[in-house]
Write a structure and sequence with these properties.
The chain is α/β, with parallel strands linked by helices. It has 19 helices and ten strands. Helix 11 packs across helix 19. It is elongated and about 110 Å long.
Length: 492
Amino acid sequence: MSGDLNREEYTILVVDDEISVREILKDVLKTEGYQIKTAEDGIEALHIIRREPPDLVITDMKMPRMGGMELLYQINGLRTKITTIMMTGFATVETAVESIKKGAYDYIMKPFQFTDLLRVIEHAIEKQELINENLQLKETMSLYEISKAISSNLNLDTVLSMFVDVLLKEGEADAVGFCVLDASMEEYKSKLVKAKDMGISGKIERIIDWKNILKFIDGKEGSILNGQEIKNHNNLIKDSSNIESIILLPIIIKEKTTGFAALFSLTKGYIFTEGVRKTLTILVNNVSVAIENAGLYEDIVNILEETVKSFAKTLDAKDKYASGHSERVTRYSLVIAKAMNLPQVEIDRLAQAGLLHDIGKIGISELVLNKNGKLDKSEFNDMRLHPVIGRDILAPIAGFKEISEIVYYHHEHFNGNGYPTGLVGENIPLLSRIIAVADTYDAMTSTRAYREKLDRMKAIMEIKENSGTQFDPKVVAAFLKVVEQLDIADVY
C-alpha cells in the first residue's frame, strides 16, 4: 500500500450477516492500521452511518432485513462522501455492473485473498482523496470569494443576507436561522430565517429559542446535534420532530458571543459532519469581522454627518446671507439626482457635498461675504477661491476625499468658461454639475447683499437659456422636470 497513507485517519465499516466474516475482516484491517466498525446488516449500518459517517463501507450483497444494494441506495441518499465496496459470493457480470451503476466504487468476490481486498481499499481511498481534494479546493475558493465580497461590503443588511444564502448552499441545509445582538447585548440588531421553502421557514421561526441557543453556544467553537441529542436539548428547539441534524455556529465580536447561525437538516438521514462545521466556521469568522466593520462604518457615517452639519452651521454664522442656502441647495440637488435615477450611493455622497459646497467661504473675509453691493475685481477674485479653499479643508479629512472633489468643481461651466480649472463637459464630475444648477437656482431666488431675489419663473428661464453653456443639458432637463417639486420635496 501507499507509504504516505495514514491509515489511522480512515474509518471502515464492515457490514456482513456472518459474524466470522466480520471478525476476520476487523482483525485484518485493524492490523493494517485502519479504524474499524462492524454491523450485521444494512439497518444497523445505517444507524452507525447517520451517527458517525465512516470513510469507507465494505458490505455484503445479500443479508436479511436490508441487503447491500438497498444499503448502497440509502447511502447515496444521505449526501455523504462515503465510498462503498460490495462483497458477494454469487457475483455475476450483471450484479457487478448494477452495483457500480448505483454508485459502488468496486466489488470483490468471496472467497477473496486479503491482498486483493487491501488493494481495492487502497485504490478506493486514493480515488476518494483526489475527489476530496478537488472538492476542498472548490469549497475553499468559493468561500474565499464569498468572504472577500462580504468583507468589502459595509451594508449590514446586505452582508447578512449574503451570509445566510451561502450557509444554505455550502452547508446543504434545509433552513438557516441567524441573529446578532446590538451594542447593548440585550436587543437583536438582526434576526432572520431563510429556508428552501416558506413552509420550512415558518416552522423554524416558530420552534427556535433564540435566547437559549445564544446561552448554549456561548464559549463554544460550535456544536453539532443529531437525533436524540436534539430531543435532549428541548430548551433550544421547541419541537424537534422531523429535524435530523443541527449545526450551531457562534458569531464572536470583540471576544464576545454576540449572535449565532443555526443550520437545520430536515432531510431524512442527512446529518451535518464535523468537516462541514469546520468549513463553515471559516465563513462565520469572516462574517463576524464584516459585522464589526459594518458597525464601525455606521459609527463613522454618524460622525461624518454630524461633522457636515457642524461645518454648514459655521458657514451660516459667518455669512448672514447664506443662512439656509446649503440646505436648500442640497434639497434641490437630491430632487434632481433622483429624477436622473442616480444610484443611492451617489445620492448619499451628493447629500454631503451639497451641504459643504460653499465650505471654502470660511476662508473668505466676512467683509467680502456680507458686502452691501457688488464686489470689485479683487474681491471677486478672492470669492472665486472658495472652491479651492473648500477642497483644501476637506481633502485631508478621512471620509471627505471624494466630497472635496465635488466641492472643488461645482463652479465649472459646461463650456469650459468656469473656475477654478476650466474643465469642459463631462470631464466635470456629474455631482458637481448637479450642484451647479441647484446652487444657481437658489442664488437667483434668494435675497443677497447686493440685490433682491429674482422672480422664480425668470430664474427658471435663466437656467434654461444657459443649458449647454454654463450648465449640463441633461441636468437642466432633469431640473425642468422637477422644478415644481423643489420647494416642497422631502428628500432626506
